[in-house]
Every structure is written in C-alpha cells, then in structure tokens.
Amino acid sequence: MSQPSVIIATASYDFTIRFWEAQSASCYRAINYPAVPQRELDEGRNPQNVNKLEISPDKRHLAAACNPYIRLFDINFHHGHVRTFVAHTSNVTAVGFHADGNSMYSGSEDGTVRIWDLRYNQFFFQLKSMLVKDIHVLSNTLLTRKLKCRAPNRPEVYERNCLKAYHLDGSVTPINTVVLHPNQLCVLSHYLIGKMVQIELISGDQDGIIRVWDTRMNSCTIELVPEPDTAIRSLSVMRDGSMLAAANDGGTCYIWNIVRGSQVFFSLNSYLATASSDKTVKIWNVDSFTLDKVLTGHQRWVWDCAFSVDAKFILTASSDMTARLWSMEEGNELRVYRGHNKAIVCCALNDV
To answer: pLDDT tens for residues 105-151?
Structure first.
C-alpha cells in the first residue's frame, strides 16, 4: 500500500507495534514482538516491551527504544530489513532523530546518552551522565552477527562501532528522558568535518537532575535540579528553542526560559500538554502559563502524547488499551484507536 500522509504508531505491553489509518482508525499493520530479534526469540529469549517510539523526519523509519536494543523498522515495507543497534547495556528509555534523518540519539538506564550515525551503520559517540574523568578513543570495532531473517538475502546485523567512551567513577544514574535542542545543525558534519557548531542534548535522570550536553565540547555545560531525588520523567523543548519543560514523578511540571545571547524568543499560541495517572491530559497556554483545557475520556493512566505539526491535533496513549486523537481547538475526542489488548505505553505521530 502507498504510504499514508499521516503516520500514527503505538506500542503496547501486548508486545506489538501497530500502525493506524488516521481517518478510519483502522489498524493496517502490526509488528509482533518488535523489541527482540527473531533469532533471539527462537533461542528462547522472553519478549520485551517497547518504551518509546519515534518516526524519522522523512517518514521512512520507526525507531523503537527497547531493552537493551534500539530497533529501526522500515515503515513502507512490511518485510523490510530491521536494523538492531547495540551498545546500551540496560533499558533504552529515549530515542529520537536529528532533523536531517542522518543521525539518531538515545538514552538508557545504563546512564548513557548516545548518538548514532545512521548513514554508515555505526555508533557515533556517547556521553555519560556524570562528570567525565577520562576519555579513551577505541578502535573501530563492528560487532555483527549474520542471522536468519525473514527477508531474503538480508542478514540481520547487530550494529556497534564505538568511537569514544567516557569512563566515570562511582555508580551510574538511570536516564529517563532525552530531547534534542532545536539549535541543531549538522551533528555529523561538525564532528566529521570539524565545523564548530553548537549541538545540545538535554537529559533527565532518576536522581532528578537535568543536564545539558554540548556535543561539540563533549561535556555537560548546565545542570538543573528542580527537586532533589525526584525523578525527571519527561522533557520537552519548544520548537523555537525558547523554553524547556520538565515533568517529574511528583506530578510537577517546571518551565525554564532558555536564553540565547542577549534575547529570549517566545512563540505565539503555544501549548504544553501534560499526561497523567489521573486519566486526563491537561493543555497549558505557555504564553500566559494558564490551564487552557482538560481532555477527558481515557479510563486509565495516560502515558504519552504527541502534537500534530500545526498543533491543531494531539494524539494520546493510555493504559485503557486505546490511543485517541483530539481537536486542540474544541478539546473533544475525534478518533479512538482500538486493537491492542494491553496497556499502550507510547505513541508517535508524523503528519508533515
């Protein structure tokens, strides 16, 4: 089938990823046991859950953060080659793409933030979540296993090519969320060619610490601690880069103005959504910092949400086994996506 203009994907504790037709709310594709390569399932490994989904800017790929892998699926071909990225040693909690689609970032409970070069099938470099004490450049080692794959003549490759490793003393704090600042230019070009540009990743961890990483300097430049020992659960940066929002396990959302040079920029008619265990999604106007509306309809915990590019719609995912599409203007429910038989824990939307 031809690619839909709107890509909607959900992942559930039922060990499936489902793709949905936006208008009819029908499921047109399901991926079973997406978090583990088929060979490992055949060898007796238990299925794992998907923690986060992200659609590439060109709508060609869906990245799934799993344990301990990142798996990259071809959206357009049901039996297309699946890439499996290995280097994390624990649950992967965050995944996302650079705007040009050539690189991917991730965060994990192993305490690392990593950047991957998707063009060359290699791991790009990693940043640890504590102070860097020593840096070692490792030899380029590609760990591959040619495995039996359903797609003919396409052996599965476990991709790992570590260019840098940051070694730390002491324990490693699990990272729960990572976002890419909109000041991104070409992260690969500035590394490979040596262009001096500023690329920042922002992470939130289990100890309640938010860190801003300058990938040019390979260092942490800012630390924010809104509530000590209260885990940061979610981060979001406004598209114009003017504000950073962080939600923690205490149910509090903090917002910071992000200053670039001598000016601060605010976008008009901008909204922030908070999804909660109280079964609602609250929509906040960040120009006035007031509650704009409350979306009610889910019957259990709302785990995730995603705005359409024009912010006219929002997609939500819930433990009630449904995903729902809402009108931002009216605050009413437009579509209900049913088909999972356990909690939906994450969703992704691309309508560009």
So the answer is: 999 999 888 888 887 655 555 665 544 333 233 333 333 332 233 33
**Residue 247, strand partner residues:** 234, 253
* Radius of gyration from C-alpha coordinates of the chain: 20
d(CA 34, CA 65): 10
Give the phi and the psi of residue 273 in degrees, each rounded to 5: -110, 135
d(CA 54, CA 93): 12
> How far is residue 247's CA from residue 18's CA, in Å, rounded to a whole number?
27
As a whole number of angstroms, the distance between CA 62 and CA 45 comes to 23
Q: How far apart are CA 317 and CA 13, in angstroms?
A: 12
How far apart CA 131 and CA 205 sit, in angstroms, is 14
Asked whether the beta carbons of 237 and 204 are under 8 A apart, the reply is: no
Cβ–Cβ under 8 Å, residues 231 and 222: no
Element (H, E) at 39: helix 38-42
